[in-house]
Amino acid sequence: MSQSAALTVQDLEVTFGAFTAVGGASFVAEPGEVHFLIGPNGAGKTTCVDAVTGLVRGSGRVTLGEQEVLGRPVQKIARIGVGRTFQTASVFEQLSVLQNLDIAAGMHRSPWSLMGRRRGVEDRIRDALEQTQLEDLWDRPAGILSHGQKQWLEIGMLLVQDARVLMLDEPVAGMSLEERNATGELLHRVKQDRAVVVVEHDMEFMRSFASRVTVLHQGTVLSAGSVAEVQADPKVQEVYLGTASMTEEDAAQADAMAVQTAGGPHA
Ligand SMILES: Nc1ncnc2c1ncn2[C@@H]1O[C@H](COP(=O)(O)OP(=O)(O)OP(=O)(O)O)[C@@H](O)[C@H]1O
């Protein structure tokens, strides 16, 4: 297991032509925490993750522990230990759960070190199966897994890659309540050794499982702190209550945000 380290994002800026999608956002995701990035549609949440993971070009500074992240190629960033999932799970449907994990583990394996690394890899795969509670499904094709289980497998694939930061884009979208809760529990298990960053619209899920929250709005950080702190912040209430341009989804989030529950069971 690699040493855990904080992901530090400083003054991150991302532009698309003349449009500034992220205009100087800063936050620190600490190991041992589930750090939620929330904000209305178009706030720049996914773009932040895209920039940190090398999918889009950004300026500013991003470090994982002592290592520079920004400006490096996608594969290098993954090798440094920044892993991510997308809104749609991308597992190999024809292959078994175990084969998917094995392929993910191969990322760290060069041909000449195959044998030497094998024992460590097996331990990580066993651990990932256990953490994601997919042990009983290890030989089943990933294609038959439920939507939630596919997301867990993707998280398992990041675990076997020994990711030190997991960046998860809307991991519970489309999940049943039971699957959401199981996902929250999973995130709290895996955060013991690493930082977890979650982009999420589901306010109930956020309230129940966030250790820390950063609220983005129009590409900048509007508010940050504990669940209770951001919920009590009038600026946050204001953007979620919105304007004439508020979407139905924003309205639902505003309603959820207005429920003043001071933190969840894991906060
Ligand atoms: N490749 C791109 N080219 C141009 N504009 C983009 C691109 N990607 C994102 N944007 C714009 O950047 C802004 C931020 O988008 P982003 O997807 O990061 O927001 P978000 O907070 O993740 O929103 P949502 O919750 O709706 O997914 C939006 O206005 C979006 O249209």
List keywords for this structure.
disordered C terminus; Rossmann fold; 267 residues; alpha/beta; four-stranded antiparallel β-sheet; six-stranded mixed β-sheet
If you had to describe this structure to a student in words, what would you say it looks like?
The protein is α/β, with parallel strands linked by helices. It has one domain: Rossmann fold (3-Layer(aba) Sandwich). Helices cover 39% and strands 22% of the residues. It contains 10 helices and 10 strands. The strands form 2 sheets. It has a 6-stranded mixed beta sheet with strand order 6-7-8-3-9-10, sandwiched between helices. Strand 9 and strand 10 form a beta hairpin. Helix 3 (97-106) crosses helix 4 (114-131), helix 3 packs parallel to helix 5 (147-160) and helix 9 runs antiparallel to helix 10 (248-258). It is globular, with a radius of gyration of 18 Å. The two termini are 26 Å apart. The model is unreliable at 260-267 (pLDDT under 50). Residues 16, 19, 21, 39, 41-47 line the site of adenosine-5'-triphosphate (ATP).
Summary of the model, kept short:
Helix content is about 40%, strand content about 20%. It has helices spanning about 45-50, 75-80, 95-105, 115-130, 145-160, 175-190, 205-210, 225-230, 235-240, 250-260, and strands at about 5-15, 20-30, 35-40, 60-65, 65-70, 80-85, 165-170, 195-200, 210-215, 220-225.
Give average pLDDT, whole number: 87
**Count of the separate structural domains:** 1
Strand residue content: 15-25%
- Major β-sheet profile: 6 strands, mixed
How far the N terminus sits from the C terminus, by CA atoms, comes to 26 Å
Q: Output the structural class.
A: alpha/beta
CATH superfamily: P-loop containing nucleotide triphosphate hydrolases
CATH architecture term: 3-Layer(aba) Sandwich
The share of residues in helices is 25-40%
Bound molecules: adenosine-5'-triphosphate
| CATH top-level class | Alpha Beta
Count every beta strand, where a strand is a DSSP E run of 2 or more residues.
10
Domain ABC transporter: 7-243
Keywords: ATP-binding, Nucleotide-binding, Transport
Protein name: ABC transporter ATP-binding protein
Organism: Nesterenkonia cremea
